[in-house]
Design goal:
The protein has 176 residues and is of the alpha/beta class. It contains 7 helices and 5 strands. It has a 5-stranded parallel beta sheet, with helices on both faces. Helix 2 crosses helix 3, helix 3 packs across helix 4 and helix 5 crosses helix 6. Bound molecules: shikimate-3-phosphate. Shikimate-3-phosphate binds next to loops.
Length: 176
């Protein structure tokens, strides 16, 4: 059967949520938007930073696996995936069942600017003394996983949201 959902993957601050919501506007009301983080917060009853603080990253990744299973069963849904979903192959295998996997990329400088706007304490992975250095390090480690998982790669640097949305709609053939 033809895939009718899109999973947006990519590092923190690459615009998954912004682009996901803009995609819904373009695709119409029969499409829904969901974030894997939102599923985790609902399931655990805690914020993401609280989960990291009280239960640790490994437990967070377990919540994330179950969130991806849930999300992968949704039809006509744009899923904004947490930046770390690529760390467990099972997540990509599950998402690929009904999702086209779209990777959003941005430069480390752009990511730094965007993440600092929200505050580094909202992203436990980057809540370090030198978040800029941490972005470069973690991004370098994760890039091969992002590239391997992606079916479509979109560089968001210096592009308008509307243009990115059109690029995704055309390349994913989601509407045809
Ligand atoms: C994480 C990214 C976050 C969130 C958690 C861990 C990561 O999601 O899932 O803080 O490991 O990259 P966003 O990419 O939506 O910020």
């Amino acid at each position: 059967m033809k895939k009718d959902s899109i999973a947006l993957i990519g590092f923190m601050g690459t615009g998954k949520t912004t682009i996901g919501k803009a995609l819904i506007k373009q695709l119409g009301n029969d499409y829904k938007f969901i974030e894997t983080d939102e599923i985790i917060v609902k399931e655990s009853g805690k914020s993401i930073p609280k989960i990291f603080e009280e239960e640790g990253e490994q437990k967070f990744r377990e919540y994330e696996i179950s969130a991806c299973i849930k999300a992968s069963k949704l039809k006509k849904t744009i899923i904004s995936c947490g930046g770390g979903v690529v760390l467990n192959n099972i997540n990509i295998d599950n998402l690929k069942k009904n999702c086209i996997i779209v990777l959003l990329k941005a430069t480390p400088e752009e990511i730094y600017k965007r993440v600092m706007k929200d505050g580094k304490e909202t992203r436990p992975i980057l809540n370090k003394k030198d978040p800029k250095k941490e972005i470069e390090k973690v991004l370098g480690l994760r890039n091969p996983f992002y590239e391997a998982a992606a079916e479509i790669i979109i560089d968001t640097t210096n592009k308008e949201i509307d243009d990115i949305v059109i690029e995704i709609v055309i390349n994913s053939h989601i509407k045809s």
